[in-house]
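Worked example

This section walks through a single chain of length 333. The input is the sequence exactly as stored; nothing has been trimmed or padded.
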Amino acid sequence: MSVRTYLEELEEKMLSPYAQLSKNSRGRMRPEEKCEVRTDFQRDRDRILYSKAFRRLKHKTQVFISPEGDHYRTRLTHTLEVAQIARTIARGLRLNEDLTEAIALGHDLGHTPFGHAGERVLNRMVSTGFRHNEQSVRVVSYLEKNRKGLNLTWEVLDGIECHTGDKMPSTLEGQIVRYADKIAYINHDIEDAIRGGILREEDVPEEAAAVLGRSSSQRINNMIINIIENSADGKGIRMSPEFQKAADLLRDFMFRKVYIGSAAKKEEAKAERMLETMFDWLMKHPEHLPEDFLKESEKVGLEQSVTDYVAGMTDNYAVRKFKEIFVPVSWLE
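Given that input, the structure is written out below as tokens.
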């Protein structure tokens, strides 16, 4: 018996009847030989972890663009925090932690530079619109490994695509990541906003604090417990109505006080103009695309190739590329 077979049997014995067992996966787009040691979902997690797109997340904005300080979240630290929260919920419900972690680690791989500011730009510029969850699926299914893709399982792709938007994930593990993403970004963005002098802990609405907790760690812990207590019947991942109302109130508060018009967003207009100008210029001057993107444009179309290129940039690379295109060399010295 291989190690993988043993682990698959262990899943069947130990996990909830509502868990997605790795041996029951719908499979991969391209069939391939099974790993002797890892289950399919473990394998997917590892492929995501070792991807180039995952490494680039460390230089992509979460909320604060070019913050002065080393302790603000980046898209990478946000992703790791989502994975930690998601795994805790999955373990509490005896669901498949490997599937949950793979979805969590891959959910933001298609995110743009400069956070949602970059996403807004591409959504305006691209004729069919742009959504980072769909781009994440494109990254893992096609762009990675020199456009061969990672060939992930159906369940991981479904969870990545449906971690945001109207469509719900098909697995409970995917639904966990959907909740973990919100829990992480709301509470950790509060911490960063307090660190940046935009909020004080006492600014958190009393109606939300009284239910969820009066510190970030308390709120995260209480929300995790509430989800576990209310989702044990396998009929969907959810909070109690009281907790959901408080969580929605906290999210609305963050949009009013931090995500729209606060000091945290003071550099976003510059970032948006920079990406918009660069996208438009590359559409008019495709010869300045990297060779592989230019060649690929013959297959997928110029707009798609420019979109893939710009969306994959880190913040730092986008600034360097903008200077290279638009700032005279003498001014760069």
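What to look for: Residues 268-332 form one domain.
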